Amino acid sequence: MLFTALRRALPVLPVVAVIAMLGLPIAPGGEGGATVADAVSGLVVVWCALRLVRERRRPLSPAAAVVVGLPVVGIAIAAAGAASPGAGVTGLARYLQIFVLVPGAVLLLIRDRRDFRLLAWAFVALALWQGAVGVHQYVTGTGASYMGEDIRAVGTFGPTDVMGMATVVAFGLVCAVGLALGALGPVAAGQRTAAVACSLLLLLPLALSFSRGAWIATAVACCAQLVLAGLRRAAKVGAAVAAVAVILVGGLGVGTAMLQERIDSISQVADAPDQSVVDRYTMWAAAVDMWRDHPLTGVGLKGFPDHRDGHASLALSSGSDIGGAGAAYRKQPLLSPHNMYLLVLSEQGLIGLLALAGSWLAALVCGLRGLVRVRRGSPGDGAPGSPPGGLDCALVACGLLIWQLVDFAYADIGGPSTVLTAVCFGLVAWWALVDPASSSPVAEASVVSPAFAPSGEAAAR
């Protein structure tokens, strides 16, 4: 039985391997370069290309290909305008990896909702592992430095990527919430129970990450999932989450003082911002200023660091202090505006931003349309024991995209965890553009699924 399950999941196992590689420790001092997960993601692209050649079928409808490939326009133009050929090639490769190649490969390797759920549970498993490491760091004082103490939960990513664990845990939490809310009927009781338990477990490491951006994005995404799943269910889940929060913070006193101070700082970003917020505002202003000088094409890929000092005010500090979690204290230079939209606007101009954001918006609209169809009663997978209707897949995909779009207002790509963003976009794209049972106008069932399905599986769907 195990061999049969592995054989059936073979096409997406390389994607699972990418997710698993993010559980490995990041070597101190190795930040900024390619990681094992990046290398495996490249193999996923090659694996997908080989399957396409072998199957000899058109992989996507023209409309779906346009949505997936739209970011290439702005990326290519900005690469041509880079300050040096090396910067252009490096930036082109990174952007294509994260926003085109890996998402496209994931989209094409997923054959049905069972594959989608397997990847969603892989997200949850990675989040549980990283979360467990992060909680251990907080309890033992071996985490990254925060307010003079080595207590910040960063998982295996280290102090140079403090958003890494927060991103992984948030993705896992959003997936778990979607899997729990969308698991309907007695056949899905096991999935619902496991997903609810994982959701509650992931709340603690997310809190201990002290990442305000991740908190905000997760709250928005989960609230959106609750509303999309139904208001009655939203009320029940909201009450349960409130009860758990009261027990953890009020009853057990988990990080009460520091968490409260961090939460309070969210409302002080305008009145009394700390230095990190001042730096962020300064870099945002610098990015906008760069765009004004080059409105259509931007300053070129990898150009923000080179133009930063010429556009930033004196309020910008020399860098942020990092340390702890096995690394020595040092200054980390501020080389990006920590806002994906402004980073794209400054380096790729209006052309790049409209192309990239247009692709995301199209995926969001198509994903929500698919969710509406499922809510109205689409058939299930036809697979024994699988939850009916695909509402869980719809909620996971929409939740992940909403999380990412909100988080991009506070963060941008960079660090070892970035490859997980590419996998996330692949999951979203499959649901929005390809899902055979959604009757999507963007892609027909015969376009993708039979191409990658072993004999007999296409009929089962």
UniProtKB/TrEMBL annotation:
| Major localization class | membrane
Q: Which InterPro entries match?
A: O-antigen_ligase-rel_domated, WaaL-like
> Superkingdom, according to UniProt?
Bacteria
Its placement in the membrane is given as:
Multi-pass membrane protein
Q: Which residues form the O-antigen ligase-related domain?
A: 198-356
Is the keyword Membrane in the record?
A: yes
Q: Which GO terms describe its cellular component?
A: membrane
**Can you name this protein?**
O-antigen ligase family protein
Give the species this sequence originates from.
Answer: Streptomyces sp. R21
